[in-house]
Hints:
Blueprint: E1 8-12, H1 17-28, E2 32-37, H2 40-52, E3 56-61, H3 67-81, E4 86-89, H4 105-133, E5 136-141, H5 154-174, E6 179-186, H6 194-198, H7 202-211, H8 221-232, E7 243-246
Parallel strand pairs: 1-2, 1-4, 2-3, 4-5, 5-6, 6-7
The structure holds nicotinamide-adenine-dinucleotide.
Amino acid sequence: MARLQGLVSVITGAGSGIGRASALAFAAEGACVVVADLDRGAAEETAASIGAQGGSASPLQVDVTDAAQVDAMLQHASERFGRLDVLFNNAGIPQGFTPVEESSDDLFERIMAVNVRGVFNGCRAAVPRMKAQGGGVILNTASTAGIRPRPGLAIYNASKAAVISLTKTLALEVAQYRIRVVSICPVATDTPMLATFLGPDAEEARERFVATVPWGRLNKPEDLARAAVFLASPEAEMVTGTAFEVDGGRDI
Ligand SMILES: NC(=O)c1ccc[n+]([C@@H]2O[C@H](COP(=O)([O-])OP(=O)(O)OC[C@H]3O[C@@H](n4cnc5c(N)ncnc54)[C@H](O)[C@@H]3O)[C@@H](O)[C@H]2O)c1
């Protein structure tokens, strides 16, 4: 039996990278997926790939920084597939290496708006729906950056630490309603975002990053997709509030 059979899921940032790999994996495990992304074309591509696999998906253009759009996204899941079992707040944006004193207000506002407010918007909109339904799962993509930061990424690191703390708080608030909330903490992952973290000397920077991972490689998006499938599934019933590290030992 498929591990997410019949579950209705919403994944943000599902037009690319970790979100796309997770959307494909969720669908392969029997979930219906609302494929949400700021980039409409990218969302449609992911949904088409799911359709070609024989899965069930609905693409949607959503800006997670806008609470009304996030609410409409969950409403869309209910109208299209009848309920909401799993919300995966995965959309995020990176920071290029910036010494803290050179970080602009605009950079701060933008990263916090997507990485923190976006996740908050999702959590706040999902809880009443999941309560009414008798349970659910919320997954939030944080990062090893929120646990073991690298220099030059102060705003991004702080945004991911905020996601980890928000997740723990919410897990305490909603456990009584059978809602689990988990943050996922990937180490550097081979997606389009990685180039921003690596900067101009990408080859050299990549080697430096790999050297800090005991397992000896970076993540592939599928490493996170497999973790997300587990965490979304009933197999993870006793897992809530944790910052689930998928990092080849980087955070030790
Ligand atoms: N790639 C890494 O090294 C890495 C490491 C740790 C954590 N993460 C986190 O993983 C998550 C996914 O990143 P990825 O590596 O797959 O990146 P990605 O750039 O491949 O995908 C991110 C997706 O989010 C979408 N997005 C951006 N802003 C949005 C908004 N306001 N509303 C809706 N969608 C929006 C983009 O259009 C894109 O499709 C992010 O939260 C990121 O911070 C990434």
